[in-house]
Amino acid sequence: MKLIPPIKFIPQPKKRIWGGDNLKKKLNKPFDGEKIGESWELSAIPNSISKVSSGPLFGKSFDDLIKAYKGRLLGESVYKKFGNNFPILIKFIDAKLDLSLQLHPDDKFAKKNHGSFGKKEMWYVIDAEKESNLIVGFKENITKKKYKTHLKNNTLKEILNFKNVSRGDAFIINPGVVHAIGKDIVLLEIQQSSDITYRIYDYDRKDENGNKRELHTELADKVIKLDNTDFNINFDLKANGKSLLVNSDFFKINIFHLDGKLNLNLLSLDSFSVIICVQGELIYNYQQKKISLDFASTLFLPAEINNILLEGVNVKFFHIHL
Predict the structure, then answer these.
(1) 66 and 212, same structural domain?
(2) End-to-end alpha-carbon separation of the chain, Å?
């Protein structure tokens, strides 16, 4: 029985009111058109399911692969837990303009109200202008009454926690936490497989039909977290080292800094792996062939692959698994 080979998927462009052209200009995505805000790298979201870009599985959809290979692809324990519902969504985001102020529900609320996973996510800043900011949570713990007063008066900016960011910064965004990506930021987002967002403020912007975008303040009110917490992920990444960024039930994320060769041992995981190159060019060896994984590219490794040899000069990459 042949092993399922490493898989590259076709990036999917998503037009957004706040998007720009940096996914093409800075990340070399094959996208044309204006206001492309997102590149979905790995998705099992209905109507946006990833398709294989090359190799013997070319053109196959991700959900068909899961149904065909089950635990061989995802890992037996992962498939037992999630079945055909792949739990992770990976995307790059280009914010030419500020995104709406928003939050996401947790698993319990999302399942009850939407039949979906909740949404925990991690951000890693790929590129940012000097004055670029993220919004993550509040400056201090606040009461529901104070929040609603500022929401009503359109003065939420007075109580929000703004973070000036630069390349390499990382953040964890838990369900219920108010957040927004500021303009002139390109980042990688690793999240639960959910497309549920509750917007609470959107600068009174209008869509292409001249209508203000829908807000979801009543739903947000049921799950919003009003405490102040540090959402930075602090890590020290040295050459030929790695750092654990997130260890949760939803995903485990390590970042590596490679300068030379690394035999990545996957035998003990019983899980698929995802490799994302975020600096330089990563080379992986498969069946005595050296294959390039370019900057801002994503590689899916089926669970039955037990190890893979990686090479690179001053390369940074993520390794994601369950």
Answers:
(1) yes
(2) 25
pLDDT at 230 over 80: no
Which are the contacts of 312, defined by CB distance < 8 A and separation ≥ 6?
Answer: 258, 259, 260, 280, 281, 282, 283
Containing structural domain, residue 185: 12-223
What whole-number distance in Å separates Cα of residue 196 and Cα of residue 193? 9
Angle at 105 between CA 101 and CA 109, to 5 degrees: 150
Which residue do the tokens 């993220």 mark? 134
pTM recorded for the entire structure: 0.96
Of 164, 188, 223, the residue at which a domain comes to its end is: 223
Mean pLDDT for the stretch of residues 64-75: 98
- Which alpha helices (DSSP H) does 70-158 contain, by range? 71-74, 76-82, 107-114, 144-152
Kindly compute the dihedral angle of the four CA atoms of residues 211, 217, 219, 223, in this order, to the nearest 10 degrees: 140
Residue 223 CA to residue 176 CA, distance in Å, equals: 5
**Same domain flag for 161 and 251:** no
Nearest CA-CA partner of 254 in 243, 241, 238: 243
Query: Does some domain include residue 123?
Result: yes
- Both tokens of residue 314? 């001053």
The pLDDT assigned to 211 comes to 82
- As a whole number, mean pLDDT of residues 292-298 equals 98
Long-range contacts of 246-252 (CB under 8 A, 24+ apart): 246/122, 246/172, 246/190, 248/120, 250/87, 250/88, 250/120, 250/192, 250/322, 251/87, 251/88, 251/122, 251/190, 251/192, 251/320, 251/321, 251/322, 252/320, 252/321, 252/322
